[in-house]
């Protein structure tokens, strides 16, 4: 998730964040970030359910058909 960040790098980043925002604002920032992530996931679930209701499998089949027709239209070497 964090790539090649080690423990020392993460501690340095945490120290810099605490210097910038202060210890009092960190819980506030974390709560706002968590709320934003929950809302984003909720909206993703809504979009997925709407696609399923509208026949998401049909849309997937249409995309597959378009890809096949593009492959057929390409000249073979």
Question: Care to describe what's here?
Answer:
By secondary structure, the chain is mainly alpha-helical. The protein has one domain (7-72). The chain is built from 3 helices and no strands. The chain has helices spanning 7-21, 26-53, 56-73. The two termini are 42 Å apart. The model has no long low-confidence stretch (mean pLDDT 80).
Keywords summarizing the entry:
single chain, about 80 residues, mainly alpha, 3 helices
Summarize the structure in short:
The chain is built from three helices and no strands. It is an all-alpha fold and 77 residues long. The mean pLDDT is 80.
Structural class: mainly alpha
Mean residue pLDDT: 80
Percentage of β-strand residues: under 5%
End-to-end distance: 42 Å
What percent of residues adopt helix (DSSP H or I)? Answer: over 70%
How many helices does DSSP assign?
A: 3
Query: How many strands appear in the DSSP assignment?
Result: 0
Q: How many domain regions?
A: 1
Rg value: 23 Å
- Poorly predicted ranges: none
Q: What is the H/E string?
A: HHH
| Main sheet overview | none
The coarse overall form would be elongated
């Amino acid at each position: 998730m964090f790539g090649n960040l080690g423990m020392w790098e993460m501690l340095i980043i945490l120290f810099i964040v605490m210097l910038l925002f202060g210890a009092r604002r960190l819980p506030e920032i974390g709560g706002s970030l968590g709320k934003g992530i929950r809302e984003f996931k909720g909206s993703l679930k809504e979009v997925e359910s709407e696609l399923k209701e509208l026949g998401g499998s049909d849309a997937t089949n249409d995309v597959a058909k378009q890809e096949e027709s593009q492959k057929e239209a390409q000249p073979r070497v």
